Amino acid sequence: MAKKDTHPEYYRTAKIKCACNNTLTIGSTREKIEVEICAKCHPFFTGEEKLIDTAGRVEKFKNRRAKVQPVKPKKVRAKKK
After folding, report:
1. Is residue 66 domain-resident?
2. Which of 9, 18, 20, 47 could be a cystine partner for 38, CB 3.0 to 4.6 Å?
3. pLDDT tens, 23-64?
4. What is the number of domains present in the chain?
């Protein structure tokens, strides 16, 4: 059905491993896949709210936001008559 030498190899029993140690078996063009989050540990499916911030991006944003000075409104000059 598929032309030879044009399609990648298809693995019917490819393994997906999540950071929470959950494993799934699916069909894929990769033999092993590692993911950080899956349906077993995703907050939408678990009903728990948790913040996944491995690089500290939220902290950096909050620090930058705290340093910003509020913008002062410009003074309007009175027109001469």
Report:
1. no
2. 18
3. 999 999 999 999 988 888 887 777 776 666 667 788 888 888
4. 1
